[in-house]
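Please decode residue identities from the backbone states below.
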């Protein structure tokens, strides 16, 4: 049987990734005739062939450097290996371009560790190609050696250790050990050896006392699978002088090429990042993120050892005030000090965490009784009794602590944290500066509150509110000078609710912002309605809280409502409580000035209950002062009560403000107020707050009681 094959077919496997751009494939008959040649670009036949002539020495197998000038049309020198194709009268040739093959060698001066990986891969691939083309050992050995050499040199100045390990087999061809047959200097240095002493050593004897089990296992696996890589923490007994290594083993033919990279620095860096991710920068304490990994383990441990674990959920009292009045730098100082005080109040092995803001957590492990937690909480509360000195002054900051205990109050981290939070919250709402254990009833209270909050939100969205109006009377003329708008909630089930039942909640939750806007709109709509009747109107005063001033543009909302309902600004007044002006917030000052500039009068509400300074009152230019009804109630009872009221009136008048007495409930109070030169009065004795009627409920002058 004769078989005819197109010679070109023999070179179809040319692959640039392995042979390079200028590699060479060829076949020469045993008769000496060149049958086919191939570089990447040119194939023969058709002519001309790349190989100019058949080398004389082309018998059997072997390899040689063929000079370009003499042998190749493109004048490029090549390392060429050849072999007789068994069973055929053909000699196969494979050539690698000298320049290309040696490029890594020359490039090693600008060493790049990545190259080393490529070289390893190329090494493996060359080997495979060579085998595929049934080349024999000489060629492989040559290539191996030159690749090893170039690899070794390439890695020499880098951080990688490089070794060639040769398997040692017993009589049954079973691998029993490996021998180091090559290494670069860095590799030897990593093993605390000199290269010439290292070469020839058996791997099993590398460790002075122990057998390198793990390393041997890796080598076996690489021998088996062809490849192995891992990041390893170097064990103490190892002669390696690095902490962390990245090891990569590639089987090349019968040997193993091992590379070791020192990744200790990278590992240290990662560890540092991890530590930072778990640490609160300000206080140096572990942070919330840390808790998520630590706490579940601590709980598990407590469950196994049958002990209790307690969480102290700590929130600082009055911290916001420090931030607001003394600035963030002072706030930070207080937080750092607070962290230290908490740390000093607990046992050395208890964990103190900053959860964020002014919230801290203490994890008490290995406790046997709930009272242990109570004692620690007491110490923490006590530690905060002394005020904090900062560069910005002295601040008193307390703590409210909620305690939850494993297993009583929860068996997982999330529940325990949540219940600790609830317990803390209950302390906050019942006086602060104390601690409390979690109790189911706290949960019920909180639940009811959340329920109410969602009802209130719904009520604002669906306008379940109505405004009542309470007149204010000029004490000298007996005419109505203004009316105060007071909100009521028409609850679909509970009936009419007074503001005290929902305004505080609205303030805490921020719902006051929406409610406040609604109130402004309703009042202006009502004034517009009354105006339609053509009667003379008195202004209506609207209560606005500090939160509204701080978080929305009250002046803008107000002026928009005035425009919407076509109302003159003089028909509206704004009441702001004395306590909400404390703190000297520039936002509030600006908003108040803007409102006054619009022509809307400003009233200080509940005066006498806050601590506003004279200068504050003066600077902010209020038109009127409403003295809190607690002071009205004192009138006629004690001499001091009268004197106090008198002092307020004198001061207000000196500052150009009119004075209104709130909560007037009897004629005696009116008499005294008149004698003290109070300007206006308001109270149940004059009129209770009333729902709006068709006309503005201005009191007839004659209704006003006689003043002696
Ligand atoms: P306030 O601004 O001091 O309002 C006066 C409160 O005193 C009203 O209670 C009124 O009914 C009550 N009062 C009037 N005269 C007398 C009296 O002779 N004796 C007694 N014992 N009380 C009298 P109300 O309507 O329950 O309002 C309570 C608080 O709710 C108000 O105190 C005000 O701070 C707040 N509030 C009411 N409506 C609004 C509103 O629309 N917006 C805002 N932000 N707060 C409001
Ligand atoms: Ca008021
Ligand atoms: Ca008041």
């Amino acid at each position: 049987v004769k078989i005819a094959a197109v010679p070109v077919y023999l070179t179809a496997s040319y692959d640039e990734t392995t042979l390079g751009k200028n590699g060479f494939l060829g076949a020469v008959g045993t008769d000496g005739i060149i049958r086919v040649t191939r570089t990447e670009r040119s194939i023969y036949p058709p002519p001309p062939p790349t190989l100019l002539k058949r080398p004389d020495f082309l018998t059997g197998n072997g390899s040689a450097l063929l000079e370009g000038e003499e042998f190749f049309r493109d004048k490029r020198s090549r390392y060429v290996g050849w072999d007789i194709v068994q069973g055929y009268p053909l000699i196969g040739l494979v050539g690698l371009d000298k320049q290309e093959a040696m490029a890594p060698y020359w490039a090693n001066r600008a060493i790049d560790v990545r190259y080393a990986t490529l070289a390893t891969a190329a090494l493996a691939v060359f080997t495979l190609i060579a085998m595929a083309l049934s080349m024999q050992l000489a060629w492989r050995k040559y290539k191996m050696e030159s690749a090893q050499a170039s690899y070794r040199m390439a890695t020499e100045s880098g951080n990688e250790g490089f070794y060639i390990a040769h398997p040692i087999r017993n009589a049954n061809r079973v691998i029993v050990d490996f021998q180091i047959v090559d290494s670069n200097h860095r590799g030897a240095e990593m093993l605390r050896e000199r290269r010439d002493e290292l070469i020839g050593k058996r791997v099993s004897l590398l460790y002075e006392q122990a057998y390198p089990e793990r390393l041997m296992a890796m080598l076996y696996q690489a021998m088996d699978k062809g490849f192995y890589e891992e990041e390893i923490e170097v064990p103490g007994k190892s002669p390696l002088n690095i902490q962390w290594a990245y090891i990569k083993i590639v089987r090349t033919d019968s040997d193993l090429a091992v590379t070791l990279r020192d990744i200790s620095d990278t590992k240290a860096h990662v560890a540092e990042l991890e530590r930072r991710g778990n640490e609160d920068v300000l206080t140096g304490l572990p942070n919330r993120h840390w808790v998520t990994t630590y706490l579940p383990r601590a709980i598990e441990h407590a469950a196994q050892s049958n002990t209790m674990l307690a969480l102290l959920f700590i929130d600082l009292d009055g911290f916001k005030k420090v931030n607001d009045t003394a600035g963030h730098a002072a706030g930070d100082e207080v937080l750092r000090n607070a962290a230290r005080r908490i740390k000093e109040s607990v046992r050395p092995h208890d964990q103190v965490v900053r959860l964020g803001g002014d919230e801290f957590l203490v994890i008490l492990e290995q406790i046997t009784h709930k009272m242990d937690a109570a004692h620690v909480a007491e110490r923490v509360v006590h530690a905060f009794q002394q005020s904090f000195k900062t560069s910005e002054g002295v601040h008193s900051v307390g703590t409210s602590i909620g305690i939850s205990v494993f297993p009583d109050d929860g068996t997982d981290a999330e529940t325990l944290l949540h219940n600790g939070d609830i317990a803390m919250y209950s302390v906050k709402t019942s006086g602060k500066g104390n601690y409390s254990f979690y109790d189911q009833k706290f949960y019920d209270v909180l639940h009811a509150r959340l329920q109410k909050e969602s009802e209130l939100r719904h009520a604002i969205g669906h306008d379940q509110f109505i405004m009542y109006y309470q007149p204010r009377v000029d004490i000298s003329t007996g005419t109505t000078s203004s009316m105060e708008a007071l909100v009521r909630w028409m609850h679909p089930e509970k009936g009419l609710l007074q503001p005290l039942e929902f305004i505080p909640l609205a303030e805490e939750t921020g719902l006051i912002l929406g409610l406040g806007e609604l109130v402004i709109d309703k009042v202006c709509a009502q004034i517009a309605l009354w105006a339609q009747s053509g009667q003379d109107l008195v202004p209506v005063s609207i209560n606005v809280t500090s939160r509204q001033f701080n978080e929305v543009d009250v002046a803008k909302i107000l002026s928009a409502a005035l425009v919407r309902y076509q109302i003159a600004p003089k028909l509206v007044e704004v009441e702001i409580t004395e306590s909400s002006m404390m703190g000297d917030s520039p936002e509030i000052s600006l908003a108040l000035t803007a409102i006054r500039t619009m022509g809307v009068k400003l009233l200080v509400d509940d005066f006498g209950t806050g601590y506003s300074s004279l200068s504050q009152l003066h600077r902010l230019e209020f038109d009127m002062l409403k003295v809190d009804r607690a002071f009205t109630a004192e009138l006629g009872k004690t001499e001091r009560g009268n004197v106090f009221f008198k002092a307020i009136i004198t001061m207000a008048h000196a500052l150009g403000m009119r004075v209104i007495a709130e909560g007037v409930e009897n004629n005696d109070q009116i008499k005294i107020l008149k004698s003290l030169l109070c300007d206006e009065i308001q109270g149940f004795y004059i009129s209770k707050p009333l729902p709006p009627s068709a006309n503005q409920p201005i009191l007839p002058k004659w209704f006003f009681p006689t003043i002696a």
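Observation: The pocket of C2E (ligand 1) is lined by residues 470, 485-487, 498-500, 503, 516, 519, 543-545, 605-606, 629, 663-665, 683-684, 689 (CB under 6 Å).
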